[in-house]
Amino acid sequence: MTFDQDLDCAGLLCPLPVLKARKRLISLAPGSVLRVLASDKMAEIDLPHFCLEAGHDYLGCQKKGDVTAHYIRRGDTAQ
After folding, report:
1. What is the pLDDT at residue 78?
2. pLDDT of amino acid 77
3. What sign has the CA pseudo-torsion 45, 41, 19, 61?
4. 49: domain range?
5. Does residue 29 form part of some domain?
6. In the predicted model, what is the mean pLDDT of residues 52-79?
7. Residue partners of 26: CB distance under 8 A and separation at least 6
């Protein structure tokens, strides 16, 4: 999957991947895709929930060993 920016949160425990993703998404243009790399299993629950609440599109994830790549498209009126 293609993406515009990359955010490495491997080794960080939730809620840090969500907080860092939120901060990065604010700086992106609407429609941009952020790839978040996370090793914490809770990110698989927390990131989609965050996207639903904040107005972003959670595009899915791809597991790569111990790290999962999560793809988020920034919403138009997202927070």
Report:
1. 60
2. 73
3. negative
4. 5-73
5. yes
6. 93
7. none
Residue 64's Cβ-side half-sphere holds a number of Cα atoms within 13 Å equal to 11
Q: Is residue 63 part of a domain?
A: yes
Number of domains in the chain: 1
Q: Is residue 78 part of a domain?
A: no
CATH code of 10's domain: 3.30.110.40
Q: What is the pTM of this model?
A: 0.94
Token match 């991947």: residue?
A: 17
> How far apart are alpha carbons 23 and 67 in whole angstroms?
21
**What tokens appear for 26 in the block?**
């604010």
The catalytic residue positions are 14
Model confidence band, residue 79 (pLDDT cutoffs 50, 70, 90): low
